[in-house]
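Assemble and predict.
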Amino acid sequence: MTELEEYAERIEGLAKRQGLDYYPVDFELAPQSLMTEIAVYGLPIRMPHWSFGVRYIHQLVRQSMGHSKIFEVMFPGDPCRAFLMDTNSLAENALVTAHVIGHADFSKNNQLFARFHDMAGGNIVEHAAAHAHRIQQAIDAAGVERVEGVLDAALALESHVDVNGELHRTRYPEFIPDKPKPRANEFQQRYAQLPGVSEPEAVPLGLQVGPQRTRIPPHPEYDMLWFIANYAPELEQWERDIFLAVRAESLYFYPVFACQIMNEGWASYWHARLLREAEFLPQHTYLAAIKAHSDVVRPFASGEQTALAINPYHLGFTLWERIVDKHGLARARQVMKEEDDFGFIRNYLDRELAEKLDLFVYEVREGDEIRVANRDLEAVREAILAPKFNFGAPRVAAVEIKPDGGLVLAHEHSSDGRGLDTGRAKKVLEYTRRVWRRPVRLHTVNDRGENVELTAS
Amino acid sequence: MSIRIAAETPWYELFSRGARDWLRHNQKVRSAVKESLPDLLAGSDLITRPGNRTVAVPVKFLEHARFRLAEAQTQQGAGQGKGQPGDVLQPARDQGDQQGRAGGTGNGEIRFVVELKIDEIVDWLWEELKLPELKPKRAATMDEPDYIREGWDKRGARSRLDRRRTMKEAVKRRSVQERGTDDVVAIVNEDLRFRQLVRRATPATNAAVIFALDVSGSMDEAQRRLAKQFFFFALQGIRRQYTKVETVFLAHAAEAWEFDESQFFQASSSGGTVTSSVARLALELLQNRFDTSRYNAYFFYASDGENAAEDREESRRVLDELTELVNYAGYVETGGVATFRPRETQLAETFNEFKARGAPVGVSHLGNQEDIWRAIREFFTEQARSE
């Protein structure tokens, strides 16, 4: 047994005693190259697409400038899969092991994670590898250009899934179900008994309309990947597969996205606490681990006094420490189970803490001048949460299929506050049109607030 | 709890998925560049510098578009640190500074440069424009005898012994020889093979290209630029075909001079246009420097066509003689849109007359950038036909 394995086992013992409850974790030491790819693709094996190549280069540049060091990546599941960078020191790995256990506890118990786990099962890493394999087969059969065209569209709409919906959805019912006749209430019953009121005449048989077909979509459909997979005219089976694969992976990413502050904070809280309790660690290893901890949860880059982004590890860690201090561990676990970042920030980031952490809202003005705008608590909370709304994407829904088969999309500009970037939107429409194979239109507003229709035909 | 350490060659070391997708991205960039190549090249200021066989095209990363909100009037974000409302955290940059910052790391944008080999570009163009390959002149060029290797002989000078071939013969012989003979000699005399040399006439693969430019007062900057770009691509096309290409640059107004390339396009004169001067100079070069039995000679001439009236007969006579000697002569007329011209210019008339007679001559008009590709296509297809 290696030293690390020995520590890992004892750290696990401590975690169990503290009531942490999680699916088993498979740890694997991995080289920098794999860690970089995981950071880029979000999964160890994922479908090929040129856009990942661009992210890959950006990631390499960031790493070479020292802006990005990856200690670990953990994939929730049953078992959870954790990859540790093989250049981590022993102390760093002791810390990372404890951190991963915190994530594992979070992902088993948080309701959002649990819901997605129930829908998708615990082997998404394997599923994603299978998707990648099938897509490779599609490339061999249909050629890279065609598959790439489908992926261009599917990945562009990646965030446009219904995160409140089900992973496995059936198509809309073909006919509008008959509404059960409302039971007459007391007044109506008595009214009907009044003299002179006749029964409504039965509709003559010949005129009976019969069951009515559902309009497609029957309501604005935000689950666009699902919608296109199911209702695009002439979509081939392999194309449909690609859309559903991207959708399944996207839904898997959602809890991580929506709970990032809580989840990183929870894992940081536990790595700090478990290490404090790990008396078996030699003094120098402990100190080195605590040094790594403070690097991870510090609010600013070294030498800086302000930051234009809030470190989720730092914010989450501070919030959890305070919740445990004030309300105890049982209550903290309850919060961990029930909330996502929206509830977490709105309910637990209070004035006292926002002041203590010096949180502010900044504004970018002309010439990229940046000023502190205010320190208003509500505004701070919303500024933290703003990038998280609707999976970080504008609200766009499929609203209609035209008689010519054309697809109509609508952007909910009133809830988003402004229109879409038309250049990019046109490109997305163009990707979508190639898959839909009919004109695709989109309604949004321009910068003067006037309705505009963009078309790809 | 167990911690796995990667086996000797774990799956993820077998190939890099990041690099695979990066290469695919670059492939897409290259083909995007290729598609817009004619515009790209016509717009840029690239012209042959001997030895510089690549051009660098700065490109941005391709963006995989997604729905995004239009940029807000004022962007907001959450930050952390000291400071009062109104405090400036990052000063506005000067407008003048904008250029410099845009390429930096400020907005996280990385640009890169696609280096394209000129040969590759020309290959693409030829494919794109569906241009035929040039053919060297046949009869005239078959008279440069040279020794070439051809076959083997059992006798020959020691220095031409082909060891490899000899070994092969030895192996062949031994394999058919009866076994059991103890005295197998490794190599015997009859195994020896010597390379044979034969004296043969080979087609000349040299080309001489004479570029002649009218630099009289009436040729303005834009016209010369068009001529320059046309010359560039004409030269690249010829370079594709011949191993050795020699170029000569002649400029003329009333008189003609030879220039080197760097000065050629700068040369100007306020004099009138006397085409026969440059034609005569070209003729002399072909007679003295580039023996047309050894060189495939090309003559390209750019002018606005307004030759002096009194030079009409003389220029016709010299040009006639010149076009007899060359593989191909190309005349491009620059300036004004052709349809606005009341009549054919004197030079266009002369060249068209040669062409009608079946001489290897092409005539084309260069009004704008677009015309360059048309002219190039015309010249190279005509030239192939006139073979």
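The longest strand of chain B covers residues 144-153.
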